[in-house]
Amino acid sequence: MLHELLVHYLNTIEQTILAYSDLYIDRYTEEILTRDRANLRIRIRIEQNNLLEINEAIVIIDDRHQNEQNQLIFRYDSTPHFPNLVTFPHHKHLPHTVIACEKPEIQHVLQEATSIGTNS
Known about the structure:
By secondary structure, this protein is of the alpha+beta class. The protein has two helices and seven strands.
């Protein structure tokens, strides 16, 4: 079974493209690799002269650290929704705030998560 976020994302892309009546779709290929991974290849003709090609690798990653009550402890994010942060688009969600931070190395995230686990 596909991950719910992946299904939603692929459906949203398809519906967005289909909403344009003046596009000719040369190719629309969803290659499902695993329940959390897919490749999307789209080739669209616009006004018969212009060509738009989109190739996207989609990976659903659960990068949250939550406690036993499923409450957020922290989450690193690069979604561009806090443009005023000096590290934009990178930031870190904490239980009650969002702070600026650089993109962390996986080792740092693991170290942080395990140190919180031993301190609680």
